[in-house]
Amino acid sequence: MKIIGGKHAKKRVREKKPHKESFMQGVAALMFSQVLIKLLGLVYKLYLTNKEGFGDVGNAIYSSGFQIYALLLTLSSIGVPNAIAKLVSERRSIGDYKGAHRIFKIAFATFAVIGLIGTLILFMGAGYIANNWLQIPEAELTLVALSPSIFFVAISSVVRGYFNGRENMKATANSQTLEQVFKTFLTILVVEVVFIISKADTVYMAAGANLATTLSTMLSFAYLYLYYKTRRREVASEIKETVNYKPERIRTIIKKILFVSIPMALSSIMSSINKNIDSVTVVAGLKNFMTDEMAKAQYGILGGKVDTLTSLPLSFNVAFATALVPAIASARAKKDMGTAEKRVSFSLLITMLIGLPCTIGMMIFADQILYLLFPNAADGGLLLQISALTIIFTVLEQTINGALQGLGKVMVPAIALGTGVVVKLIMNLVLVPNPEIGAAGAAWGSVVCHIVAFIIGFSVLRKHIKLKISVSKFLLKPVLATVMMGICSWFVYSTLTGIIAEKLAIIIALIIAVIIYALALIVLKILDKEEIYMIPYGQKIYKVLTKMGIYKNA
């Protein structure tokens, strides 16, 4: 018999033993998934950029179409996983498992309709968007090829959000990893086939690359559907143990879902608009003083190579932003703000330790990295150096947004980034048409955009939660470790250049950079015992460090 709650329902929740590493295990699973996804994404990006007949111009066609798709995708589904996770987590924390599952079912139906509308808009409006918005007519086919993806990603996002809310990050991690594996394999396969059939036609190759995206989203949803089916008995068993259930009308639940998901999605919408500002303004602005082909190539560098490389570090950090939403929402529901404060502070510290060396390393080795990865199209060193500055602010912004959303301040991230986007639009319109600045104006616009968003978000977060981070721990020691890394790795590179092959010198220098930075973090003791314990296998790591004499037994 189902216990659904009511006037006579017992207000009790099953007691669960706290699991110290559950939060970080979820983060670790997502982090591994995201890193693998980005690496696989880099593989097919390298393949495309270096492919005969593709290059920077192909990247321009591919990226411009993809950014429009990303905007419509954001409108139809982004924000949904975190919103569903938040609502499901809150219901489950008080024992209302039936209510949590009902939210999932209604959300699935709602976003299936919204996703279908997004697909039809992109399919039917592809020609108009390519010719009038992007001013890249060749992008029409890429938009058509991408249109079905919107429907499949919309419904997939609901399933991912449901399992995130159950504090099961593996469903999201596995589905995203599989999607990228399929995308990488299919991109290479489809483009190779198109290359042969079309005799290296750039337009058809770009469309083929985006068709691979559509196929991979279909396969990813198929995995999630099967995963859910295998968990149906577990879900049904939980529903039987429901307490505190209050029946709500479908319309009321839809309003709640949209009330949470729309503000969360606004932040992603602003991020997508940020990218679309470049796709709309860069080519148009550069045409004032260079040919169409050159303008497209410059945008291809920004939208293809630079964006790909600067987004790599985000994969390490997005796991924290994702895991913080249900974790903090659950802590708030239980009125356990101490746990929330520890997790936010720890996440911000790790974010800083990830973002800072990536920023500096990419600035120092910009030309070398481009030469190493894109030997057939290595232009763009200055653009990469400037854009690398966005990394540290974007990763911090990611973590702050996850914390704010978990705290219920869902509009703040959107307002913060929206303010930054307005600043970027103005800078693009003023700087890009200037022959002395050109595409670098768009890169600087992105830097200022994320600085503004970070300042606003961090200011609001500090007002609502006590951050347990000192200046020395959060800023001075990480900066010192990064400086040591930069000096040592550049010295190694400078010494080896001319002695061994250029590419080998770059690889060795980058490996040395990672080793020096890791050693510096240990020697400077940036993480204390409690923080090391939060890391998966933290107790074993701490024992090794105490045996080495770096930490003392306490």
Describe this structure as you would to a colleague.
The longest helix has 42 residues, at 292-333. This protein has a domain at 283-468. The chain is globular and about 65 Å long. The protein contains 20 helices and no strands. It is an all-alpha fold.
- Count every beta strand, where a strand is a DSSP E run of 2 or more residues: 0
Helix content: over 70%
Q: Structural class, from secondary structure content?
A: mainly alpha
Describe the global form: globular
**Low-pLDDT segments, ≥5 res:** 1-21
How many individual helices? 20
Measured on Cα atoms, how large is the radius of gyration? 24 Å
How far apart lie the N and C ends? 51 Å
Write the H/E string, N to C: HHHHHHHHHHHHHHHHHHHH
User: How much beta, percentage-wise?
Assistant: under 5%
Task: Please supply descriptive tags for the structure shown above.
554 residues, mainly alpha, 20 helices, 0% strand, globular
Brief overview, please?
The chain is mainly alpha-helical. The chain has helices at 22-50, 55-76, 80-93, 97-134, 140-165, 170-198, 202-230, 232-240, 250-286, 292-333, 337-364, 366-373, 381-387, 389-406, 411-431, 440-464, 471-496, 502-523, 529-534, 538-547.
Please write out the topology.
Layout: H1 22-50, H2 55-76, H3 80-93, H4 97-134, H5 140-165, H6 170-198, H7 202-230, H8 232-240, H9 250-286, H10 292-333, H11 337-364, H12 366-373, H13 381-387, H14 389-406, H15 411-431, H16 440-464, H17 471-496, H18 502-523, H19 529-534, H20 538-547
Helix pairs in contact: 1-6, 1-10, 2-4, 2-5, 2-7, 2-9, 2-10, 3-4, 3-5, 3-9, 3-10, 4-5, 4-9, 5-6, 5-7, 6-7, 9-10, 9-15, 10-11, 10-14, 11-14, 11-17, 12-13, 13-16, 14-16, 15-16, 17-18
